[in-house]
Specification:
The protein is α/β, with parallel strands linked by helices. The protein is built from 18 helices and 27 strands. It has three domains: 21-207, 3-Layer(aba) Sandwich (Rossmann fold), CATH 3.40.50.12780; 261-451, 3-Layer(aba) Sandwich (Rossmann fold); 454-555, 2-Layer Sandwich (GMP Synthetase, Chain A, domain 3), CATH 3.30.300.30. Keywords: Fatty acid metabolism, Ligase, Lipid metabolism.
């Protein structure tokens, strides 16, 4: 023992476990009267929101929920969802947020796998949840969670109340006495399921420390000011809203809830509530860019009643944004910050940090720099591109392709009940993303493709993202996804699925000519299909669904 270890113990006076639950308590103590949540006619302060979160914590305890128990929630972006992010972990329980677009079969698996003790469900999703609960009990009679209904005033559609109690009644007589998180910062705070495109979905387990540090990193990456106004376009169920429920609490900001994302809803919220920040997948931003001009002018002309024009800051992730999209967002006075991440790393873990020198570049060239996935988050220990075989860093030449890896505090504990998958994911002391990329001399990383999305045609590797970037430059295209299509001669050929902007038309031959101006011949798609693209509730295009459409396209001789 050296002298710095002797008689210098860790005590309650000099050490506390890091937990984002503390953020809401501080905001309630320091800024009790500041607005915390806006949802329709609901306008609650941080003191009121904190009290409701504590009431939820005490109510859950009365239902027998304790440390390590799973509380499953199926809610849209409403105040109750925000409260669950504090009330559930305050008692050491684990919040399991479910994708609201899942089918009953997927929900059945998750309810049983998570051993859900309580299910909190919005009335809009009661039918599918009821079906899942019945099947879950049939498969596993031990699966018998308490069910709590949320009857949101902003929802006017159909849906029965299926639970033993409603959320408001549950909170009505519960204590609002503050509860501090008493566990270890390595304790689980959240369970999120991957999309499960191959086999059963995996349960990704987050810890309190990682959630705390990613929330703080969000502040650092964005220079997020105190009392910012954040619009919930990103689903709170997706990686716990990239940890932004905790981030906004740390800044005593305003959470503007948006139950359904539409251009009208987004622009109206920006104007009426002086929104300063929001997050979303490229398709969300594309939706705004392609909205009718009168709507855009209404929403962006005067941000906030009586306030001067302001730049709205937005984060984009889920796919590399095209240079065209970045330029178009700038024309809307929306500043786009590009981040990259996965469920396993709490949402974003790298960002394209802007450099002053880029400001002097032409807009198109600057957008190319901004489209890179960038550098590690402040509080992430490392991000690199490694040779998949040797696990050595690839040269920083912007050309040599390897696997993108990250490590540090902003990485999951592992996969629930799946030791082998956890071991494989952390091979060599890194989390392996499965994404292929390059690293440039300045250290910035750029994705070249998802490993499963690389198209191998005649022995040549083709990046689907490269082709998509070219197609996005065509003025008629709103969304595009390129996947492999079987080919009798070349093995595979690129196939482009195209979603056109409203009121536009374009022939496949025109797109072939467009691609040939920017791509080598073997990279030009050999097939095109036009129509709406399948998307997740977070706006990501579902390429695995497109791959199933093997007989739905016609080949073009290029």
């Amino acid at each position: 023992m050296n002298m710095y270890e002797q008689d210098l113990p860790k005590t309650a006076a000099n050490f506390a476990a890091l937990s984002p639950v503390d953020f809401i308590r501080r905001s309630a103590e320091v800024h009790p009267e500041r607005t915390a949540v806006i949802h329709g006619s609901i306008n609650r302060t941080w003191a009121e929101t904190y009290a409701r979160a504590m009431k939820l914590a005490h109510a859950l305890k009365s239902l027998g929920v304790g440390k390590g128990d799973t509380v499953t929630v199926m809610l849209p972006n409403i105040p109750e969802m925000l409260e669950c992010h504090f009330g559930v972990p305050a008692i050491g329980a684990v919040i399991n947020t479910l994708n609201t677009r899942l089918d009953a079969a997927s929900l059945t698996y998750m309810l049983n796998h998570a051993a859900s003790k309580v299910v909190i469900v919005d009335r809009e999703f009661s039918a599918v949840m009821q079906a899942a609960l019945i099947e879950a009990r049939r498969v596993n009679p031990a699966c018998s969670p308490s069910v709590i209904d949320v009857d949101d005033s902003q929802y006017q559609g159909a849906g029965d109340l299926i639970g033993q109690n409603t959320y408001d009644v549950l909170l009505q007589d519960a204590s609002a006495e503050p509860l501090d998180f008493q566990g270890d910062e390595w304790d689980a705070i959240a369970l999120n399921y991957t999309s499960g495109t191959t086999g059963e979905p995996k349960g990704v387990v987050y810890h309190h420390r990682g959630a705390y540090l990613n929330a703080v990193s969000n502040i650092l990456e964005w220079d997020l000011p105190a009392h910012c106004t954040y619009l919930w376009t990103l689903p709170m169920f997706h990686c716990n809203g990239w940890c932004f429920p905790w981030t906004i609490a740390a800044r005593a900001g305003v959470n503007v809830c948006l139950r359904k994302v539409t251009p009208e809803g987004v622009f109206e919220a920006i104007r009426d509530h002086a929104v300063t920040h929001y997050c979303g997948a490229p398709i969300v931003h594309s939706m705004l860019v392609n909205a009718p001009e009168p709507l855009k002018q209404y929403g962006m002309a005067n941000v906030g009643p009586g306030k001067a024009v302001a730049t709205v800051k937005a984060m984009v992730a889920g796919a590399a944004p095209s240079a065209t999209l970045i330029e178009s967002m700038a024309s809307l006075n929306i500043s786009l910050t590009h981040v990259y991440g996965l469920t396993e790393v709490y949402g974003p873990c790298t960002l394209c940090a802007p450099q002053e020198a880029w400001d002097e570049l032409p807009a198109a060239e600057r957008a190319v720099y901004n489209a890179r996935q960038g550098v590690r988050y402040h509080l992430q220990a490392g991000a690199d591109v490694l040779d998949p075989l040797t696990l050595e860093p690839v040269p920083r030449d912007g050309e040599t392709i390897g696997e993108i890896v990250v490590r540090g505090n902003i990485c999951m504990k592992g996969y629930l009940k799946n030791a082998q998958a956890t071991q494989d994911a952390f091979e060599g002391g890194w989390f392996h993303t499965g994404d292929l990329g390059v690293r440039f001399p300045d250290g910035y990383i750029k994705i070249k493709d998802r490993s499963k999305d690389v198209i191998i045609s005649g022995g040549e590797n083709i990046s689907s993202i490269e082709i998509e970037d070219v197609l996005y430059k065509h003025p008629a295209i709103m969304a595009v996804a390129v996947v492999a299509k079987p080919h009798p001669k070349w093995g595979e050929t690129p196939c482009a699925f195209i979603e056109l902007k409203p009121g536009t038309q374009v022939e496949a031959a025109e797109l072939v000519a467009h691609c040939k101006q920017h791509l080598a011949g073997f990279k030009v798609p050999g097939a095109f299909e036009f129509g709406d693209l399948p998307k997740t509730s977070t706006g990501k295009i579902q390429k695995f669904e497109l791959r199933k459409r093997s007989g739905a396209v016609a080949a073009i001789d290029v």
